[in-house]
Structures
1.
Amino acid sequence: MTDSRPVLTMTGISKSFPGVRALHNVDFRLFPGEVHALMGENGAGKSTLIKVLTGVYGIDEGTITLGEEQVAFNGPMQASAAGVSTVYQEVNLCPNLSVAENIFIGREPRRFGAVRWGEVRRRARQLLARLDLDIDVTAPVASYSLAVQQMVAIARAIDVQARVLILDEPTSSLDAGEVEQLFRIMRQLRDEGIAILFVTHFLDQVYGMADRITVLRNGTLVGEYPTAELPQLALVEKMIGKELDVLEGIEEHSRRDLAALEGGTPFMEVSQLGRKGAVAPFSLTIHAGEVVGLAGLLGSGRTEVARLFFGADRADRGEVAVSGKPGGLRNPVQAIERGIGFCSENRRAEGIIPDLTVRENMILAMQASRGWLRPIPRRRQDELVEQYIKALSIRPANPDVPVRNLSGGNQQKVLLARWLITEPRLLILDEPTRGIDVGAKAEIQKLVVQLSDGGMAVLFISAELEEVLRLSHKVAVMRDREMVAQLNNDDTVNADRVMQTIASGSQREEADK
Amino acid sequence: MTTTSLTTGPSWARLPRRHVPVLVTLALLLVMYGIGVSQYRAFSNIQVIFNVFIDNGFLLVVAVGMTFVILTGGIDLSVGSVVAMTAMVSAWLLQSGLPALVVLVIALLIGPTLGFLMGCAIHFFDLQPFIVTLAGMFFARGMCTFISDASIPITDGFWTTMSQYRIGDPRGNFVSISVLIAFAVVLVAAYVLSYTRLGRNVYAIGGNPQSALLMGLPVARTRIAVYTISGLCSAIGGILLSFYTLSGAPLIAVGMELDVIAAVVIGGTVLTGGSGYIFGTVLGVLVLGVIQTLITFDGSLNSWWTKIVIGGLLFAFILFQRLIGIRYK
Amino acid sequence: MNNAKDRYRTILGHRLFWPVAVLVVMLLANTIYRPGFLSIEVNNGHLYGTPIDILRLSAPLILVALGMTLVISTGGIDLSVGSTCAISGAIACLYISQAPDQNNLVTVFTALAMALGVALVLGAWNGVLVSVIGIQPIIATLILMVAGRGLAQLVAEGQIITINSGPFRAIGLGHFLTLPLAIFIALGAALLVAALTRRTALGMIVESVGGNREASRLAGIRSARIVFLVYVVSAACAAVAGFMMTANVSSADGNNTGLWVELDAILAVVIGGTSLAGGRFYLSGSILGALIIQTLTTTVYAMNISPQTALLFKAVVVIAVCLIQAPAFRAKFRRRGRGTPPPATPSPQQQKQEVPA
């Protein structure tokens, strides 16, 4: 299968942005009829490599050869015309246009310059039938689920005589059934001789689908391996390098006695809390000093649970009691008054205020709870900001730079500081370690342990099971917008068991209370 | 596999939604016309409708151009001034003795050129359409008085013919040539929007500019094109206005951009872009025209009620669009 | 050497550098053209001269620009301020014109209070549309921009209301401590807004809401209230500006009072360095912007050019200032070195390929 000549060869690719070397001397090969996984941590250079290939960015050094020709695309349109099509993680379609039009826009069949709508619809139906999708192609794309939109995007990508199909984290918002459907299509396309470049964070999917793996780390090539010859552990090591040790150091802190914590009064109890269309009713209790982990795939309802806990969305049923006192959480202001803090997973859209300085971003929540008429005195601001810049080792240690100039990890720390300054009794952390470098990740994990040792309750959400298991006293497992199990994190619990729970949705694992 | 569960609801419940605003505008128009007919006998005369078209032909043409811009999510404040500038330049050139055809060509080139430059500024320098077209508005209005402080009459034979020629039936009902030109512009625009790549790209950019770029659509070209088209429509509107008034006046069409935007919005085009039809814009212009006619017929109502009613309608329609949730972003 | 270069760069990079430079250049050009431009003389115990006139005439624009700055900072825009000026002016004049004694201070203050009250209601209307119903600001305020002119004419019944009230006239033309009263009113309003925003945490919270509304909400800020508030403040500023405009001519004209002041105010704010996208706001920049616009108008008058033609110059200034402040333009200019202007229509591909160079 892979003994033919590569359809795509990238040699010695380098690409720099102001202040950042995104790719350095990277080689990459893609053979016809293979699924090739491109692996690496966030910031390893995967998306830069894809964007360089499709001509979104120019390259500084190196060559790209497609078939026999050396190419340098100047944009996605040219790339797809040459047979290199991309489907992005966030579905890039026009929500207001119909399904058929989204597939064909830019290359509609025309007669005398006029779009032949009948032909567009007919061919769209044909193409979707090839993907086993029977939907109304005249309906706007916005009226379909993300999964269907993803399929439509793939249909668009393969309509041109694609030789190379790039799938950039296509599965991150799909449920298991949808992923299976996608895989079936991928296999079919592979068997038709299309070369598929597949980027994903899910290791299982890599081992389920990929024929070969290329690993990047910090913008450099680690190596190219046949999947069968690279065990999972080795892959993880290659992706995160030696810093793995840093993370493992934390292991010892965890697995503390949950019983001791549960003796005290619970800080927050919710029962049958739910919101239509977001998450099915669930009950959960968090004690002071307890770390509750929320495990589950993206889109399983993890974030929705966190938002209900914070009043960011209003629950439409169920009861909440904080410190034994009942009462609804109707908005974030009420939650903050009761000592709850919330770091959103979406740092850019729901976390930082990019224009404002580090200082202002840090004191924002505290200032908000004091009201605008009582500004925090400058001296107090300086004390707080200095204290947390030091405690969280935020770089640069200058409180007066706009927070947008900081790296992702440091922005995350600023957000943590924003909530720590309010001295919350429950801190909700939604994916606090996503998209930041390994060092910062380890620091944040250590911080969570310290905080809970100090008596703070933490609701910890992460896509990485290992991380959840390392930090939590109790793990609540989400699946299909439902809380399917609560596991006490004792010796019997490991990643496999949680994975099984996620996969089977078993109710039997309910914690014995 | 589970293909059936992936669709959302039956198609009859979903399809009309895009057309609801236009239908509501149509209903409103019919109701207003009904009120007019029931209250004033002369209102049922077919010439009343023709007059609405004759009086608002230039507005219709400009609104068509604005529809393109608003569909991409932009806005063009310069239209009123460009209309005035075109009329002014035509009057001035005719006065200085240039032949009508040459004047026509020059006048029709100025608007699109300004539109093209504004489009470039908006796209390449990432400036806000609001500010750039505001500058364009100032520039065009300034050019008007730069040419002349006073109104310049037009006596050219071609212009007077176009102004006075009546196309009518034996009973005396008639329309002007301007109305036919306006209709032609409407038909061409409707065709362009639904049957050409340019038109579809306009919708795509309004729907999600980021996606449009990644889908490989020519975003730059399209964006510049819509401002050029709006400039061209304003230029045609200016010519029609000069047919109508047979003069170029420096302060004519002040504030026209507001009427135009109001007409487009009342016609069901969403100001965030991506949704709307030329047909809706025609209805929007008619609604404005009929309001004016109603107030004229009434006689006891003062002219300022026009503005208040238009404001009220704007409010009602925006609220309505919000309620039925036409906002994809 | 290096130090001097750094300092040069800091000054060049200061956000107020370009507005100040433009203002200074305009004043210089005027002085060269007409050497008496900057001279100020004392007459009747009052100061007279072109600079004083510029200050006095820019007072209404400064007021409107102050409110507009806050609105724009939240990522909004208020197109209705011109109409608000007209309505408040018309109401004040109507009340005074119907009073038996137009010079009675109580009458004048009642008139002002009434008009201000109505303006606050109009501001609240805008605020509700934007913050509660969630309509795009540009459209929400467009409604009042269109309908407000009609309302102003409705109040005045289509007439121009002329009044003869000394105290009311003083708002526009009176003097205090040798200087026009209008200057003090504008200055007072500027100080008040500055104190309100910078002495409290309101300024930061407004910027926070403008920078990222959802993030602000999740940080516990009642974003909707803040957004509501800025439209009310904007309407209040517009009302006072409306008093000044009508007091200047002792009459209220529903059609023309404050016509296009919203555009000038938006310009002033943008020239002052506040981004139309929201976020950081600069009150001092907006005031400078208003002064620039008034200086331009005065200059054009002094050169005997018709005020309409002045719009040509305004267009040039607007585009120049916007381009100077546009990051995209700066980046292009810097890359190409000094002197060579960028081509009219570089393709995005070209730009991209030049990045690595």
Note: Residues 52-341 of chain C form one domain.
2.
Amino acid sequence: MSSTDWPLWEVFVRSRRGLSHTHAGSLHAPDAEMALRNARDLYTRRSEGVSVWVVPSHQITASSPDEKDPFFGPAGDKPYRHPTFYEVPEGVRNL
Amino acid sequence: MTRSDARAPYGAGPLDSPLLPLADDALVLSHRLGEWAGHAPVLEEELALANIALDLLGHARALYSELGDEDELAYLREERAFRNCQLVEQANGDFARTMIRQLFFSAYQELLYTQLAALGHPLATKAVKECEYHRDHAEHWTLRLGDGTEESHARAQRATDSLWRFTGELFLPLGPGGPGGTPELDGPDLVGAVDWDALRRSWTDRVTGVLDAATLTVPTTEQHGAWAAGAGRQGLHTEPFGRMLAEMQHLHRSHPGASW
């Protein structure tokens, strides 16, 4: 049995309550239950987390590097999408 | 050694403490699991086994330091002075054998430490969560191996059948109290307050439940061989143990007092 027989899983770890799960890495495991346990051993042994998700890597649809420009380029010159673009008018207490 | 030596009266030295068998169980199994380093079927499982080994080493260290000098107890005792059960000293064999051994031992350790924790032993209170994880890990693997391929099933069944005879020893009462001991006892005598019959019943329920679910046949053979029952606890060990001990101890014995 080699690791190539086992599917790849992506591991997401939530470090504290209130934060969101963050991608931590990937691992091989025969099924989801074992993937969770492997994730616990690989990614939370130094108290990194309070919750773990595992997702089959093949279930992830990723954007392609070729589509980088049409995907992400247009957002580059639109500073008005950032809240810091706007000046808070005098006298306004909540915006 | 004759059988009448089996339950020699407990004295006051560390070698007489009923905690010593628990420490030796943890150390010996830790070393066995450590032997998988570099040899486990996959990297992820290697880490899992090393984690479990280190947890067990932690248990052993905590118990040894209650009894005396850790290094002296781990590295300078002869085979006959070790009180671990024979189950934990059994060679790793294939992965199925390692996992079945782990299932048998972790189920025992979890139940025993749960009782010790209820009696107020500080180490047990801390260790019981680790034991629970070890048992869970072994259970998951037993299910997958038993209910997996024809090959994995055959290997898991072979392991179950050949290790079964070492399980009877686990329920031999340790310490001067034995069943019905007084919970008021403190320190090492806590072990005497453990309800070994209840432990055996719970262990049997749990383990047979897992074996059933894994489509493995629960052996109907005796839980001890002709001379195996309680032998480890008396310092009588099986052949592979001497070699393991030599490997475990040779560095310390070759370089006494050396440090990193």
Note: Residues 33 and 83 of chain A are 42 Å apart (CA to CA).
